[in-house]
Automatic annotation (TrEMBL), chain B:
Entry's localization field: Membrane
Transmembrane segments: 29-51, 63-84, 104-125
Record organism: Tahibacter harae
Gene3D superfamilies: Fumarate reductase/succinate dehydrogenase, transmembrane subunit (1.20.1300.10)
Designated name of the protein: Succinate dehydrogenase hydrophobic membrane anchor subunit
Originating gene: sdhD
Keyword ATP-binding: no
Length: 130, 127
């Protein structure tokens, strides 16, 4: 006879804070980037197949949905990369004090936005120059 | 002599998957590899924007770029399937579904890596 066991508090109980947000977003961006490998395969297969196939991949990437996805993947990569570096730092035993943990969390969040802006500035500059 | 080992000693460090720290270590190795490789890939992707088909193909066909791209692809799919494996372990507890989704992730990762490597090979060797 299964009893109603007490559950530990779930997400909606806790006050949102940078520590948990960066952890959740790291996982979410990892899943998003794994899904993004479909485009990577399409790009390479299209480039190998010929000009028509490559033009189709380019058209998909240039469409509104493609641009939104590419922007999302750019930020996902920037965040996952920076937060991954943070995890590697933590693997060495550093950065666990609450103050530094919160600070590196904000560095990752702001840094990911800066990196995304830099990449898309390059995209827009190239488009303007082309 | 093996009788002197307690069950705790046998299982300690191996965990429920009996894999010990292998998953953790490989995830870190691929992560470290992906730091420079993904930055390089962003640079390549940005370079592709203003190139036409022949130019894009020539860029990827350069031996240095082809090798780095192959390394990037291998590291990406290896790292991705390790991460997705943990996500499934954490959230999917229906026995059949868990094994099916774990297998699907592994198979798709291998197929994605092979398809990418074949494409890079075709581009590099001009076939």
């Amino acid at each position: 006879m299964p009893q109603a066991r007490p559950l530990s508090p779930h997400l909606q109980i806790y006050r949102w804070q940078i520590q948990m947000v960066t952890s959740i977003v790291h996982r979410a961006t990892g899943i998003a980037l794994a899904a993004g490998t479909v485009l990577l395969v399409c790009l390479l297969a299209g480039l190998a197949a010929g000009p028509e196939a490559y033009a189709k991949v380019q058209a998909c990437a240039a469409s509104l949905l493609g641009q939104i996805l590419l922007f999302g993947w750019t930020w996902s990569l920037a965040f996952h990369l920076l937060n991954g570096l943070r995890h590697l730092l933590e693997d060495t035993g550093r950065g666990y004090a609450i103050k530094s943990f919160v600070m590196t969390g904000w560095i990752v969040v702001i840094g990911s936005l800066v990196l995304t802006a830099l990449v898309w500035a390059c995209v827009l500059l190239q488009r303007g120059g082309a | 002599m093996s009788q002197l080992r307690t069950p705790l000693k046998t299982v300690r460090g191996l965990g429920s998957a009996r894999g010990g720290t292998h998953h953790f270590v490989v995830q870190r190795i691929t992560a470290v590899a992906l730091v420079p490789l993904s930055l390089w890939f962003v640079w390549i992707a940005l370079s592709l924007i203003h190139l036409d088909y022949a130019g894009a193909r020539a860029l990827i066909a350069q031996p240095c770029n082809a090798v780095l791209l192959a390394a990037f692809v291998l590291a990406v799919f290896w790292h991705a399937q390790l991460g997705l494996q943990v996500v499934i372990e954490d959230y999917v507890h229906t026995p059949g579904l868990e094994i099916a989704s774990q297998l699907a992730v592994k198979f798709l990762a291998v197929l994605g890596a092979l398809a990418s490597l074949l494409a890079i090979g075709r581009i590099a060797f001009g076939s």
